[in-house]
Amino acid sequence: MVEKETSRTPVKVVGISGSLRKGSYTKKVVQLALDGAAENGAEICMIDLQDYNLIFCGAVEDEADYPEDVFRLRRQVKEAQGIILGTPEYHGSLSGVLKNALDLMSFNEIEGKMMGLVGVSGGNLGAINALNSLRNIGRSLHAWVLPQQVSVPEAQNYFDPEGNLVDEELKDRLNEIGRLIARFSTLHNIGQGQEFIRMWESLPVNPGGRKKP
Questions:
Q1: Whole-prediction pTM value?
Q2: Which end of the chain is more exposed for a tag (fewer CB within 10 A), N or C?
Q3: Whose CA is closest to 85, among 36, 172, 170, 19?
């Protein structure tokens, strides 16, 4: 666990939930990661794509005809120093709604940002393939993608009927993604390059998806 980083101007961390399902587990795990970022002093914002009227990328040639929500999404991500992406795994990859949202953005919004990845699935293999796809996207857009990621297999077994995560170890791992994003974003934002590299190189090995006992 990292120590809280103090800064006169808190960094901004946005979380993007790539699920439109009511009561989405994806949104819940993204929020837990954002809670960890808030613990480390970050200003947080949840971007729930259900609340955005986004056009399919490429459907309209002239961006002047894009819905305003496309530009709202771009502004919110551009203003942030850290990004947490969350997706369910569908057919071995990330959700179409999240891929489309990312396709509507570019280097202008994402390059040089810290990025953390979380995912859920209904099966016991977790969301590893979806997260690997997101990792490739993040690298292609020149983001700093955390080596750690959290994949929640059989997500329906980890939440109670009220939607609360019942596994404390898993909750801490999700919080830790946010804490690390806030910490690295702060170091990067205030130009502490040597400390940034030292901390990056000391990150523990990613534990991968947690198996149920």
A1: 0.86
A2: C
A3: 19
